[in-house]
Amino acid sequence: MSSLEEIRAERLKKLQILRDKGINPYLSEVNRSHEIGDVLSSFIELEKNKTIVTIVGRVMVVRGQGAIMFVVMQDASGKLQAVFKEDVIPNEIFLLFKDAVDSGDFIEVTGTLFTTQRGENSILVESWRMVTKSLLPLPDKYHGLQNEEERFRKRYLDLLGHDELREMFKRKEKFWDVTRNFMKEQGFTEVETPTLEVTTGGAEARPFATHHNDFDMGVFLRISIGELWQKRLLAAGFEKIFEIGRAYRNEGSSPNHLQEFTNFEFYQAFANYEDGMHLVENLYRTIANEVYDRTTFTRGEHSFDMSDEWVRIDYTSEIKRQMGIDLQDINEEEIKAKLIELGVKYEGNNIERLMDTLWKYCRKNITGPAFLINHPK
Asked: Residue 353 has what pLDDT?
């Protein structure tokens, strides 16, 4: 197997082949007539009318030899097979493709649509151009990035090779769109509050500290979505407000915890927590239906339905049921001893943080939509 340095050196030679022929391997504009997704959705009509189409995409796979080459091209909307035949393309242009193109390159192809004998929708290439020459290879098609550290540091490569990950990003966008639209339909006003605060509020977490040069004072990146500011807006006369924004917590990293993340908070005058729970139930049912087109979900061995009644779970009673611990009559050292017994890592000596760590262990045993109530004072 060639090293990355050897692969790059070989691709630099191919780059020079293009330049020696007077070809610009890094175009600033393309002549795309259709996105691949549009081609696929209108394939029968375009094929029937012998419409000439021009698509642009990344070369994901190159296979074949001799007088015919098969190329899988991908853009943001989908994938399509491009077929290069020596008897269709001028010989010099066909050979240039074989000599200069690798997986990872961006190319522009023009041709007509047809269906192969195996029934695969394809474009028969009549001409092509190099759009961007790639100097490094894509991750292995079947194995992708295996090292988890590398996957998250090179997220762009991880996304490139996994359609389901890109779909997750699209679902996230729709998730927030549905949330925003739902809140506005309920009469809430969207607001933006400061992300730099003199006093962090709204949660118990370690903040990022920085310095405000103009005022010569220390400030913090917020750990909640403007709780203190939103409450001031209620005092200013706004009755229903919400914010979707970034929060920052200078703490540990895991697949479930990031130092920077998107969160959502809302505040409503003349309403109590029961009203809030009712709104949240309707919000999540709306999200389930509009983003996932269903309300039933399976997580491991557990299944649940978002449309079912949402149970209320008493914080103290649930921990006592699972752990045999009465939080009304316990101290920090006893909680630490229990966490050590369970093999759970914890930070600090604050009883609130220790209780929270204990609760996070217990909540793994709960399935389905529920509200946690009666948090100890």
From this structure: 86
For range 261-273, the mean pLDDT:
96
Q: Distance from first CA to last CA of the chain, Å, rounded?
A: 62
Q: How confident is the model at residue 143 (pLDDT cuts 50, 70, 90)?
A: low
DSSP string, 263-302: EEEEEETT--HHHHHHHHHHHHHHHIIIIIS-SEEEETTE
Asked if pLDDT for residue 142 goes beyond 50, the answer is: no
Whose CA is closest to 79, among 108, 39, 126? Answer: 39
Examine the domain organization and report whether 79 and 112 are in the same domain.
yes
* Claim to verify: residue 274 and residue 374 sit in the same structural domain: no
- The Cβ of residue 353 has, within 10 Å, a number of other Cβ atoms equal to 16
Token pair of 140 as six digits:
């292995």
Domain that holds residue 362: 305-377
Both tokens of 110, joined, read 């023009």
* Banded model confidence at residue 243, pLDDT cuts 50, 70, 90: very high
- pTM, 2 dp: 0.81
Last residue of a domain, one of 294, 319, 354: 294
Residue 141 lies in a domain: no
- Would residue 154 count as lying in a domain? no
Q: What value, to the nearest 5°, has the Cα angle with vertex 108 and ends 69 and 65?
A: 10
